[in-house]
């Protein structure tokens, strides 16, 4: 018995104050607390998370759980003496103390039970039915209302589940996108590092050449200076000789001195310094120009948040392929769930735009444009009526969005899509020879997004549909 009391006490104890519940409230996660304890906890933490499991409460101001309150009050001896009497009165409702034995009636106009003896004359013009019938009818109405509430709750639960999926997916998107951003910048860092080393090597090579040139010129000058010094010493020595000795040797010394004096004056060589302007002039611009050859620009970027679960996008978001299995992705409002479709990340609402799509030998595809408001969840056709202007390929045949067969000279490998929004025109061309395939004329009133739909590609050698310049 003591063990049962201990279990009951534990069940009826607040997780915050550890005392028996007072005015207990129950959160959506099924944990219960004293109402005042929970409010104090929320005020201290400045959030509305469950003190036990930390899950955020969906109830801003939870109501008192009266069933749990009565049980807790009873266990703690706090129940009022008259409560049992009041419960008895509730069970045995008396409409009229004078005629308790009479069959009770229910007035639908006044929505209350009435005595068939005392109040009959007051309700002759009202709609009165037996209480049992009224209870049966009203309970049926309440059951219907309950079903509606349950359905509504189920819908809210579905949305909550979707938000939970989206929350988990956002975490995955963060990690994946962060990894790809770092990879792209690592490529740029590597390019810049290699370019830096290359330019520093060129600078050092020029410095080596200039240093050798200066060394060579200095050696030549030093040799000339040494020769001149020897000649000067010879003349000075000759000037010190006696008369007879001087007369016998001065001619050779004079000839040597004249030869040295006839040499041209030394000149500084041009270009002996490092060409700093060549190394630093427009350095950033020249590196940027070279970098352009290393990077790729796509006029259309696919939006992964719109892609059907069976579609796989490339890391750079420029190509798409069909997959046999569905990926675990949230059913967010932008996602196409009924057709294997993906949309462009940016739309057009003015001017002219064009891009090319490599379809290769893929057996089933649709490319074109769609309204931003195109239905992404329900049934639709790839036609202007549903806000889609496109070119389709199925079973080796080409047709436009209105079902008209399009004749081409040879199988299309690369398609050019052109949009003139202001003139309301969408055109398709064979990129190889720019022959016209088909076009639409319409009035556009909202933003248009690039549109791609890919079917199963069994047996084809090219499985990707790729956007290119």
TrEMBL record:
Q: Where is the RING-type domain?
A: 14-54
Domain of life, per UniProt, equals Eukaryota
Q: Which PROSITE patterns match?
A: B302_SPRY, ZF_BBOX, ZF_RING_1, ZF_RING_2
InterPro entries in the record: B30.2/SPRY, B30.2/SPRY_sf, Butyrophylin_SPRY, ConA-like_dom_sf, PRY, SPRY_dom, TRIM/RBCC, Znf-RING_euk
The record's listing under CDD domains reads: SPRY_PRY_TRIM35
- Coiled-coil annotation reads 139-238
Recorded protein name is Nuclear factor 7, brain-like
């Amino acid at each position: 018995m003591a063990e049962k009391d201990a279990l009951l006490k534990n069940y009826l104890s607040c997780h915050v104050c550890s005392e028996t519940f007072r005015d207990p409230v129950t959160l959506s996660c099924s944990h219960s607390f004293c109402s005042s304890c929970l409010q104090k906890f929320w005020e201290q933490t400045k959030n509305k998370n469950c003190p036990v499991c930390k899950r955020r409460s969906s109830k801003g101001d939870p109501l008192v759980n009266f069933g749990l309150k009565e049980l807790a009050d009873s266990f703690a001896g706090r129940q009022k003496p008259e409560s049992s009497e009041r419960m008895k009165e509730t069970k045995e409702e008396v409409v009229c103390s004078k005629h308790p034995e009479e069959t009770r009636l229910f007035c639908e106009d006044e929505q209350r039970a009435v005595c068939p003896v005392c109040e009959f004359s007051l309700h002759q013009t009202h709609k009165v039915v037996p209480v049992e019938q009224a209870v049966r009818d009203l309970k049926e109405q309440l059951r219907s209302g309950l079903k509606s509430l349950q359905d509504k709750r189920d819908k809210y639960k579905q949305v909550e589940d979707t938000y939970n999926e989206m929350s988990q997916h956002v975490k995955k998107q963060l990690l994946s996108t962060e990894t790809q951003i770092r990879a792209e910048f690592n490529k740029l860092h590597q390019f810049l590092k290699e370019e830096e080393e290359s330019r520093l090597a060129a600078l050092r090579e020029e410095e080596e050449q200039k240093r050798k040139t200066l060394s060579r010129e200095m050696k030549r000058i030093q040799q000339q200076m040494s020769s001149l010094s020897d000649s000067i010493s010879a003349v000075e020595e000759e000037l010190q000789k006696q008369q007879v000795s001087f007369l016998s040797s001065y001619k050779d010394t004079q000839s040597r001195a004249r030869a040295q004096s006839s040499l041209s004056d030394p000149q500084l060589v041009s270009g002996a310094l490092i060409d700093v302007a060549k190394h630093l002039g427009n350095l950033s611009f020249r590196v940027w120009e070279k970098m352009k050859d290393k990077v790729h620009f796509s006029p259309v970027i696919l939006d992964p948040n719109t892609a059907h679960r069976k579609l796989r996008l490339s890391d750079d978001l420029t190509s798409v392929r069909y997959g046999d299995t569905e990926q675990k992705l949230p059913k967010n409002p932008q996602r196409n769930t009924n057709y294997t479709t993906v949309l462009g990340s940016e739309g057009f609402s003015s001017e002219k735009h064009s891009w090319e799509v490599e379809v290769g030998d893929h057996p089933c595809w649709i490319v074109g444009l769609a309204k931003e408001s195109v239905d992404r969840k329900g049934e639709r056709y790839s036609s202007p009526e549903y806000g889609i202007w496109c070119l389709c390929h199925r079973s080796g045949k080409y047709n436009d969005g209105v079902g008209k067969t399009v004749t081409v000279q040879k199988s299309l490998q690369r398609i050019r899509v052109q949009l003139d929004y202001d003139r309301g025109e969408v055109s398709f061309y064979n990129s190889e020879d720019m022959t016209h395939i088909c076009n639409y004329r319409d009035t556009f009133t909202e933003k248009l997004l690039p549109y791609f739909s890919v079917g199963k590609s069994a047996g084809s050698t090219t499985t990707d549909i790729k956007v290119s310049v």
